[in-house]
Specification:
This protein has eleven helices and ten strands. The chain has 333 residues and is of the alpha/beta class. The strands form two sheets. The chain has a five-stranded mixed β-sheet with strand order 3-2-1-4-5, with helices on both faces. A five-stranded mixed β-sheet has the order 8-7-6-9-10, sandwiched between helices. The structure holds 5'-O-[(R)-(carboxyoxy)(hydroxy)phosphoryl]adenosine and zinc ion. 5'-O-[(R)-(carboxyoxy)(hydroxy)phosphoryl]adenosine binds next to helix 5 and helix 6. 5'-O-[(R)-(carboxyoxy)(hydroxy)phosphoryl]adenosine (KG4) binds next to helix 5 and helix 6.
Length: 333
């Protein structure tokens, strides 16, 4: 079964063709990030307009790269992210996907964005060990999810305030670095001293929830108190505190729930220190750690296609009335 998938929940316009064996025939992503940089964050109106201009050409490229006819492709299902995300952006991908499905007389399925992120490591590692603990850390979300089988989720913990990527972006902004801040802080941290600033490791309270906003405030205070500490050292100290919190929570979750593998997902999964630290956690416990490629960490439509095919197999098509859902909890299933 062949699925055309669309992802437009934030600033990336994605289209991909995926088959039900998990093969990615094409995955195209166009980002409008350059338009948002000057504002220090994604501007919803600009993102929506960019999706409107980009969605059709991105779909055309995805079909072409998959070797399919641009007007009458041999597609069995059309999937799109229905939420959570920016409503104006979601609506464009969702409406476009419904239009393609109607035009080709094929079923349509709406996908939860986080469902997509959870499928990303599975696409690249079809033979994972279950139960699988996934640390999903992006610009909008941070959670720990236990999966007993494909699509069978239990949310073990989540951030009580900012997402991990959001903290990276806010700290970067405070330091005068460009948006998005994660990659720049990651780069600088590799040249810095992680002990230069004494920062707290948040949420050492025995729960599996996460918290990053106190750390962000601590960085602001510490840099005001110690203006002599250089940017690389601030970046390294902040990153060390983020990674320490995440590693502690993953370790605690493994102890409590006995997962047999660990996967990383979301934009912050591209972080070099986090990847290295989790590989260490896996090595200590002799369990595999699945690290998605950079393209699979950040928003893309291939992961939406994989989640869409799974949902369609379980529950069938969505209705044409399915609305965009800007806020939408990942349900326990
Ligand atoms: O998953 P994603 O592309 O979009 C959302 O759905 O949020 O994640 C984007 C987030 C941004 O906050 C960005 O700063 C962060 O991922 N990010 C990183 C790195 N690369 C991207 N954070 C830390 N280290 C990185 N190398
Ligand atoms: Zn995302």
């Amino acid at each position: 079964m062949l699925c055309l998938a669309l992802e437009t929940s934030c600033d990336d316009t994605g289209a991909a063709v995926v088959d039900s064996s998990g093969r990615v025939l094409s995955s195209v992503v166009e980002s409008s990030i350059d338009q948002h940089r000057a504002f220090g964050g994604v501007v919803p109106e600009l993102a929506g307009r960019a999706h409107l201009l980009t969605v059709q050409p991105v779909v055309a490229r995805a079909l072409e790269e998959a070797g399919l006819h641009p007007l009458d492709p041999d597609i069995d299902l059309v999937a799109a992210t229905a939420g959570p995300g920016l409503v104006g952006s979601l609506l464009i991908g969702l409406s476009a996907a419904k239009a393609y499905a109607l035009a080709w007389a094929k079923p349509f399925v709406g996908v939860h964005h986080l469902d997509g992120h959870l499928f990303a490591p599975l696409l690249e590692n079809p033979e994972v060990e279950w139960p699988l603990l996934t640390l999903l850390v992006s610009g909008g979300h941070s959670l720990l999810v236990l999966q007993r089988a494909t699509g069978d989720y239990e949310v073990l913990g989540e951030t009580i305030d900012d997402a991990a990527g959001e903290a990276y972006d806010k700290v970067a902004r405070w330091l005068g670095l460009s948006y998005p801040g994660g990659p720049e802080i990651d780069r600088r941290a590799s040249h810095g001293d992680p002990h230069a600033l004494d920062l707290p490791v948040s949420m050492v309270n025995g729960t599996l929830d996460l918290s990053f906003s106190g750390l962000k405030t601590a960085v602001v205070r510490a840099t005001q108190r110690h203006p002599e500490v250089g940017l690389d050292d601030v970046a390294a100290s902040f990153q060390a505190a983020v990674v320490e919190q995440l590693v502690r929570k993953v370790t605690l979750a493994l102890e409590r729930h006995g997962a047999r593998g660990v996967a990383l997902a979301g934009g912050v999964a591209a972080n070099s220190a986090l990847r290295e630290a989790l590989v260490g956690v896996g090595a200590d416990r002799d369990i595999p750690v699945y690290l998605p490629s950079r393209a699979m960490c950040t928003d893309n439509a291939a992961m939406i296609g994989a989640a869409g095919l799974h949902r369609f197999a379980l529950e069938g098509a969505s209705t044409w009335e399915l609305p965009a859902r800007p806020t939408w909890d990942l349900v326990h299933r």
